[in-house]
Write a structure and sequence with these properties.
The complex is a heterodimer of chains A (325) and B (292). Chain A is mainly α and 325 residues long. Chain A has 13 helices and two strands. The longest helix of chain A has 38 residues. In chain A, 35% of the residues are buried. With 292 residues, chain B is mostly helical. Helices cover 71% and strands 1% of the residues of chain B. Chain B starts with a helix and ends in a 5-residue tail after the last helix. The chains are: A mainly alpha (325), B mainly alpha (292). At the A-B interface, α1, α6, α7, α10 and α11 of A face α5, α6, α10, α11 and α12 of B.
Chain lengths: 325, 292
Amino acid sequence: MLEYILKRFGQSFLVLFIMSILVFVGVNLVGDPVEMLINPEADQAEVERVIRELGLDKPVSEQYWYFLTNALKGDLGSSFIYNEPALKLILQRMPATLELALFSLFISLIIAIPLGIYAGYKPNSKASKIIMAGSILGFSMPTFWVGIIFIMFFAVYLGWLPSTGRGEIGSFLGIESSLFTLNGLSHVFLPALNLALFKISSVIRLTRAGTREIILQDYITFARAKGLSEKRIVLVHILKNILIPIVTVIGLEFGSLIAFSTVTETVFAWPGMGKLIIDSIYNLDRPVIVAYLMIIVTFFVFLNLAVDILYTFLDPRVRLKGMNQ
Amino acid sequence: MSSRDQNFKNFWRDFSVNRIAVFALFIFLFILFVAIFAPLVSPTDPYDLNSVSIMNSRMPPMSEDFAGNLYVLGTDGAGRDMLSAIFYGLRVSLGVGVLSGVFALIIGSIFGISAAFFRGKYETIIMRIVDIQLSFPSILVALIILAAFGKGVEKTIIALILVQWAYYARTARASALVEINKEYIDSARCLAFSNTRIMFKHILPNCLAPLIVVGTLQTAHAISLEATLSFLGLGLPITEPSLGLLIGNGFEYMYSGDFWISIFPGIALLITVASINLVGDHLRDMFNPRLQ
């Protein structure tokens, strides 16, 4: 067991190491940041001074070694544009992204679970068929385009909700978030709904499949035989049992919400990490690109590691397979 | 009647049970036709500088210019006919999506089938890479590649191939593992056929059904992902105006209420992706032995 966990840890660090080489070398092969940073009228001496200052005159291998040793000390380099540590820039914008992702997770659950249970509970009704067709449509709709439609309809045409930026920030129990003010909520609603759309479709399908399985179980028949009301069967017996697999999947999918938020943040000009990385790619701000990619890859690698290890405790079949390997 | 005709007839009998899927298939074939023959079916050539006039920019749908040309879906900021731009855009989007899908299918099947065939350390390493890659969301994989190596047509196609190959490899391995234990493979081995011949002439054809299902759904996904990346400015360059770039163009004019520049390319994208998904969804049900 311990051997398996250690092995998985080793693998995770190997992945991180390979990723860091790939990202660092790749980023440093593209474009010329000096050209974008420097006054076009600067003379050759000035250009060379900037190149030396940024450490760009050294070979890539040496730059990488410098980056790696600093990264292990928690220094991921400084932004060419903002002149601030890249890590600090990203951490500053992280709360906005987390808040958007959490709120959209909340929206997707309160919309998708009731619809999914209904579609599984009455699979042949007209409404269920419409729900399922809608979920295929939701899968097929490109997120960024739906975001544009939302802005056009709700912000430009109806003028109900603001379309860009993050609202006022409130404080509650020491946590600062725009979710705690009315103005903040009005700003987060459209982007969160947009980000939730894809998730709504997949949670509907998951819930429906789960409901259809549970409804055939003996304990549901028994509950009916006991004369419990259908309302109680749905709200207690079905809902409770369906939440276990859904919560597991949602935990995993939270990571993908953060990855997909790059798109939504760009459409709605939401000041999170996703918008930061896209802006940095435009500006060839190498340290921020590398830092963002490394942070998000680390986040995913350890999220997966945690889930895998958790599974070995929960499911003996995984444990046995891991031991044989 | 040859056995191939018979096979097709059986396939069509099963497929046509689902009316919506048949409808979606015809819609997709129509889109494919339009994309392939875009220069012939478009009212104007949107990238011919002689026929495009800035005087005609941002005209709403169904308006006419001074020369009496009708713009059914309006014009964009540079005065290009939206309908023609969409036809040409479909061409780029479908081309990139299908091309990357085919390459990913080939690469994925080679790795998947050989992993199932040779087993051992080789299989462990390949499947470990597949698992690790599939634990990242597709947009993140594409973002890493394009952020690190820059944008461009080849780079977008490479990114899409790298995003997709793991799905094919996993599917190919799973079905190859089942096929390998069947008797016809034993007899092929007894005839001392080469490994390559057994893998690609005997095992591969019998793994095609699940690969086709994954292929349709993945191609839809690739088209949508390419549009997203191009919209973000990370995918295709402006010289290859796919639907995603057209939507991105319209994004600038959205606040002034010129809805048609973004909406119509988006609808074209939606119909394309949805029709492929509907066909793929039905194929999956058809080939799923549990539902038969």
